[in-house]
Amino acid sequence: MTTPAISPDSVAALVARFLKARGVDRVFGLCGGHIMPLWMCVDAEGIRIVDVRDERAAVYMAHAHAELTGGLGVALVTAGPGVTNAMTGIANAHVARASVLVLSGTPPRRQENRGALQDMVHTDFVRPLTRYARTVREPDLVLQELDEAVSRAIGEAGEPGPVYLDFPVDTLRADVPQVLQLLEQLRSRPRTRLFPDPEAVQRAVDLLWSAKRPLFISGRGARGAGAALGRLLDRLDALYLDTGESRGLIPEDHRSVVAAVRGAVMGETDLVVTVGRRLDFQLAYGSPAVYGEARFLRIADCAAELRDNRRGTVEIFASPAETLEAILQAAGARTPATDRDWARSARDKHLERAAKLVSSMNNAPAGNDGLMHPNRLLAALREALPADAVIVADGGDFLSFARVGLPASTYLDPGSLGCIGVGTPFGIAASLACPERTVAVVTGDGSFGFNAMEIDTAVRHQAPVLIVVANNGGWAIEVRDQLETHGRVVGTRLQFADHAAMARAFGLHAERVERAEDLSAAIERAMSNRPALLDVLVTPDAVSSDAKSGLAWVPDLQALAAWDEAERRWRNG
Ligand SMILES: Cc1ncc(C[n+]2csc(CCOP(=O)(O)OP(=O)(O)O)c2C)c(N)n1
Q1: From ligand 1's centre to the CA of 99, what distance in Å?
Q2: Which atom of ligand 1 is least distant from the CA of 421?
Q3: What integer best gives the mean pLDDT of the chain?
């Protein structure tokens, strides 16, 4: 029997047309019968399908694509296990507040709840992790559902994040009368800007210009506000802390950047300014135990980044870029009260520490096993990678070393969900989204394993990514925690598996590197033969800052042991 061709008026064709009209030029997915009409229409519409080996990777890729392009990332996954596999990706996008649209299918309406193949009520379990989750049964409503879903994904009137729609496969095949195909629902509009209340802006100026030790911290919501933020930092001579969410917003050579003395300035500041940033575990939940008497100024366009954990003396609910501009305007030529000696001395200490780190990386000692220190690998990468490389870091100990040791103007990692395994899919999507930039994934061997199969996707789609596996034969950060907390190791060692041999089997250029002196040449060969993988043997003996800080063993009150102790003291008066 031949299946009738899909009509251009079908729901599937309309979804594809909608995506195209909204600027979607690729989707990440894994095929299946329940989404086949959509899959074929997406391709027919000229949208590239990046077909992956596991749905989880499709959502990770859509997530990275959204983060790097500022647009919408789209994943297309089939019913049942396609959606359950996608769940971790959806959860990660939810926590990261990434604008991802996940599309799926369900059995035909007349087979619902009769024991059909791959029949599950997906919306029941994706709903808590999405901004919008609906099954579209009625063909005529397809465009309005897509329109609202995308609006919510990009954060119009709320927190951005993943949205989910599925369609019974017979709905996908059904036609929508042309009179109901409203063009207004296909059109994309510029993102709405929220302008700040002038009275709140004036109060913010008073607060900022009277602070002695102002400290700015930016996050996801500050993306796009870098230019205004830079000017405001200059005007105030304020200090600035970067968090992974907005790395590169303020260049590392800006005199406000003091990342290497972050703990100290958090304790010394008298005004913390959060710009589109949650006060989460990485910022000690804004606790007075860590920030003392400091006051808060909070600027964000969604409640989660405006009101979590601490109230601001001034709170501005508006787009961060517009707010920072308005503050600069309103302040005019007013003279700030910033203690310039404080700012200068923090910056000097930061520079001193950063320089010390770079020189120590080159000479980092090998472990008792004779294997190189992970910092030797990072130092070689630092030398070889261009300044504008996109860095994707993944792992436990190795992520910790990479976060401090590898500078990056664009940086992605497992984020606050601690979602290890994102490295390879993020890197593939990044190298496809930014073909003019070098994309390097630096990952622990454990983390690499989760989505290792996606190296096949990299080859098939000619994604020019460089994957560097720091192979220490285990889940090292957990090994260390077990040794220190429990005195024995169980279930956390892996093999020193030959990932390069595996990568070669899939057609990558791949080498195993065992000696630090071979690194430079191997990196050079890999750079000119991407996609490429380097499997570099490193010692599990190296102790990372995350292992030392207590992050791995999860203290009761705070993420880091020092903050946990401070919190305990503060609570006990
Ligand atoms: C999906 C998931 N599983 C488990 C963990 C717990 N975890 C955090 S770091 C880590 C070890 C990572 O090992 P590897 O990537 O080899 O890096 P290494 O610590 O060895 O440098 C583990 C198991 C997690 N955060 N996420």
Answers
A1: 25
A2: 1
A3: 96
